[in-house]
Design brief:
Length: about 575
């Protein structure tokens, strides 16, 4: 690929609604373009990564004996009524009608359609086991689409469904997929953990999530460093005995007095040190329902830069984690604080401001609050819950870090993860609901034993970036990098030697099947380097007149701090 013929559109700044690093970098590097909430165009550079993810998934699924098909994105509502999910599924299921007033859904998953295929086409036990998969667009009307591709509404999933003649077969199919998933995620070169997950009504242990370890992950996972015990927090809590524990933090209810709401005052109220010139206020407001009862809380973060330069006051909602926040719109600020951002002097709130957090966020003690910048945080903030019953002021979690692991070998540790895959034994749940049967060896009708297996194809690149980036940009594992090698010729338009050498190296690598891009845009070196570091191409070769005269080029691996001079002669062989 030649850069002049490709689409490279990098931005200096990320849009204000990008909260986490993967979303910011994908926007800045021109990987995705937002069309609406949770709906993105995969731009050419981003699509290259997605296609590589798909190729690895496809190869390993095929190797594991699964067979690819493509099921419709638009599915008849009546099929979904057979399992009851048309009504039961809730608001994540996008439903609509066609011109004949028939109900349809956009697939959030495809158990109904695949079970319908099985009941028509898999008639005998001799045809089993079968595993059908697709790599297809999904739509889930997520309550809170966010973080770019991480939690989109439209996204790509690989979903596979196994059909077996009995429970033992289904469990073997499940294990086969669980193994294939390990091969797939190993090939992505990411740090991940397979954790036990809740298998819902079916019970048993046959549900595992594959979690990429990242501080920005929305899931909490529990593991034992001394054994292979690992579970998501819901599963771990479900199995652990309920225990009353001392509260992780003192419950707090702070009503700032008028005029007493400077950063220092709030820090004092919170009993935390204020650490930098970028100062912050952390506030929470009650969210009231129509009747005026408290239904939850929102945590607000105010950043005040420098010496209270009001033009730079920014307000953001902290979404459970402190890693990111979105800047509130002016309307929201006016709505919550009764004043415009420019006038957030000593804050006058219309509503009492209280330090209260809701359940999802209250599980954390020792928060870091403040600006999303290194050395600009208030550390050690402990949140309390404000719950009406005094006894629930105690921490109601069943599991805390340091508890003895169920394996008995060590103490539990907790970390955060991004769910990139999920394998699930379904039993006969769907086959019974849809009367999907086959004839067994005795000619008797039996319900299929099923399993389902998902991978978040478009979430995966986001997870990869969360785990692999630096201040300059993304750092792709070679297996899914948009390009593996970039050639940056300096002064290609001026120097015949540079042009000739760059073209020669490019063509040699191309012919050898290397995913190489030649930056022939004629940009200045600084611009070229910044672009390719942002895009995160693993290997960069720089050619210049002076280097060529000395028989050298400059090579830099994306993770290295500095470039090294290498002989130009063996470069093609060296890169292969
Ligand atoms: P989550 O807990 O993150 O909402 P899920 O458990 O609802 O995910 P599954 O039904 O298990 O998701 O779907 C299989 C995979 O699809 C998930 O493991 C995840 O990688 C991916 N996925 C699910 N929802 C989204 C989404 N909104 N955006 C991108 N990928 C998603
Ligand atoms: Mg979900
Ligand atoms: Mg989940
Ligand atoms: Mg899941």
């Amino acid at each position: 690929m030649k850069a002049s013929q490709f689409l490279i559109s990098t931005l200096r700044d990320a849009p204000a609604d990008a909260e986490v690093v993967s979303h910011k970098l994908m926007m800045r590097a021109g990987f995705i373009k937002k069309l609406g909430a949770g709906v993105y165009t995969y731009m050419p550079m981003g699509l290259r990564v997605i296609r590589k993810v798909e190729a690895i998934v496809r190869e390993e699924m095929n190797r594991a004996g699964a067979i690819e098909c493509t099921m419709p994105v638009v599915q008849p509502g009546d099929l979904w009524r057979e399992t009851g999910r048309f009504d039961k599924m809730g608001e994540e299921l996008l439903r609509f009608k066609d011109r004949h007033d028939n109900d349809f859904v956009i697939q959030p998953t495809s158990e109904e359609v695949v079970t319908d295929i099985a009941r028509q086409d898999f008639r005998s036990y001799k045809q089993l086991p079968k595993n059908l998969y697709q790599i297809q667009t999904k739509f889930r009307d997520e309550r809170r689409p966010r973080f770019g591709l991480m939690r989109g509404r439209e996204f790509i999933m690989k979903d596979a469904y196994s059909f077996d003649k009995d429970a033992d077969g289904a469990k073997a199919s499940y294990q086969n997929m669980a193994q294939a998933y390990r091969r797939i995620f190993d090939r992505f070169g990411l740090n991940y953990r397979a954790v036990a997950a809740d298998s819902g009504a079916i019970g048993g242990d046959l549900s595992e999530e594959f979690q990429v370890i990242a501080a920005t992950g929305e899931d909490a996972i529990v593991y034992c460093p001394e054994s292979d015990y690992a579970a998501n927090i819901e599963k771990a809590e479900a199995l652990a005995p309920t225990q009353a524990r001392p509260a992780a933090s003192q419950p707090m209810q702070v009503t700032p007095t008028p005029g007493k709401s400077t950063c220092a005052d709030v820090a004092e109220l919170l009993n935390v040190p204020l650490q930098s010139t970028v100062k912050s206020l952390v506030l929470a407001t009650d969210v009231l329902d129509e009747a005026g009862a408290v239904k939850g809380s929102e945590v607000w973060l105010l950043l005040v830069r420098g010496d209270h330069d009001m033009n730079e006051v920014k307000v953001g909602k902290v979404p459970g984690l402190n890693q990111g926040f979105r800047f509130a719109t002016e309307e929201e600020i006016v709505d919550h604080f009764g004043t415009r951002p420019g006038y957030l002097g000593p804050i006058n709130t219309r509503k009492p401001v209280r330090l209260v957090v809701d359940r999802d966020v209250a599980v954390m003690a020792d928060w870091i609050c403040g600006a999303n910048e290194v050395d600009a945080h208030i550390t050690g903030v402990n949140w309390g819950r404000d719950l009406p019953e005094p006894e629930v002021v105690a921490d109601i979690r069943n599991i805390v870090e340091g508890d003895l692991s169920p394996c008995g070998k060590g103490k539990l540790a907790i970390e955060r993860g991004i769910e990139i895959g999920h394998v699930f034994y379904l039993g006969t749940k769907y086959s019974k609901a849809m009367n999907a049967t086959f004839l067994d060896v005795n000619g008797k009708t039996q319900f299929f034993e099923m399993g389902c297996y998902g991978i978040g194809v478009t979430r995966l690149p986001a997870a990869a970036i969360e785990q692999n980036h630096d201040e300059r940009g993304m750092i792709w594992p070679e297996s899914i990098a948009p390009f593996t090698v970039v050639i940056c010729p300096i002064g290609m338009d001026r120097s015949e030697a540079v042009k000739a050498e760059a073209t020669k190296l490019y063509e040699t690598l191309l012919a050898a099947g290397v995913d190489v891009i030649l930056d022939d845009r004629g940009e200045r070196p600084g611009v070229m380097f910044a672009d390719w570091e942002l895009i995160g191409v693993p290997h960069r070769v720089v050619l210049s007149d002076r280097g060529i005269q000395a028989g050298e080029c400059e090579y830099q691996f994306r993770r290295d701090a500095e470039a090294q001079k290498l002989p130009l002669a063996g470069m093609d062989a060296w890169l292969l």
